[in-house]
Amino acid sequence: MDYDTYGSNAVELAIHLANVERDGEWAPAFLRAHDEWFTPQTALDLSPAEARRAAATADLVRAVALAGSQAEVLERLNELLALARPHPYATDHDGELHLHYARPDAPALEQLTTTVAMGLSQVVVQHGWQRLGVCSAEGCDDVYVDTSRNASRRYCSNTCASRSTVAAYRARRKA
Ligand SMILES: [Zn+2]
Ligand SMILES: [Zn+2]
């Protein structure tokens, strides 16, 4: 499937946010681990209130991925989009001309929420809400976006895919 590069990367950011383990100082740690998404000079420290709002955004991304119908997806996606403040601007900061969704001087939380909401929405409206799913591996409930050509993805990662293949093989041998 042909993603526009920025949109596809932005949806990966959304997926990472939905899957990140939230303990202690997770929010600023997450921002720093994905600092390529923020305009240089953006302060990547979040207040406790902002960290809670980042968590709410993560929950909404997850809710969109878990939705079971198009109506449900639309409702949750629009809830997420209501948190976004899109203000597109063109940039070549990494050497390639592309668009960012949030204004460059927006606070970190606004850049995060806007990028995640816009990236996720773009993939859903262009490629269908069935492209989002939750991992089928036992004991894993991470969400993923399926970028495979034939929309055949079932696991969040290669690790979960091979873990499940091994488990299925053992179960067959036992049987
Ligand atoms: Zn960029
Ligand atoms: Zn998994």
Short description:
52% of the residues lie in helices and 7% in strands.
Topology:
Blueprint: H1 5-19, H2 26-33, H3 48-66, H4 70-81, E1 89-91, E2 98-100, H5 108-127, E3 132-134, E4 143-145, H6 158-174
Antiparallel strand pairs: 1-2, 3-4
The chain binds zinc ion (2 copies).
CATH architecture: Orthogonal Bundle
Considering the protein shown, what is the CATH homologous superfamily? Jann2411-like domain
- Report the portion of residues in β strands: 5-15%
User: Shape, please?
Assistant: globular
Query: SSE order, as H and E?
Result: HHHHEEHEEH
**CATH topology call:** Jann2411-like fold
Widest sheet: strand order?
1-2
Mean pLDDT: 90
- Share of residues in helices: 40-55%
Outline the biggest β-sheet: 2 strands, antiparallel
How many β-strand runs? Answer: 4
Domain Zinc finger CGNR: 131-173
Protein name: Conserved protein containing a Zn-ribbon-like motif, possibly RNA-binding
Pfam family, one: zf-CGNR
InterPro entries: ABATE, ABATE_dom_sf, Znf_CGNR
Structural commentary:
The chain has helices at 5-19, 26-33, 48-66, 70-81, 108-127, 158-174; strands at residues 89-91, 98-100, 132-134, 143-145. It has one domain: Jann2411-like domain (Jann2411-like fold). The protein starts with a helix and ends with a helix. A two-stranded antiparallel ribbon has the order 1-2. A two-stranded antiparallel sheet has the order 3-4. The protein has six helices and four strands. With 175 residues, it is mainly α. One zinc ion is lined by residues 135, 137, 140, 142, 155-157, 160.
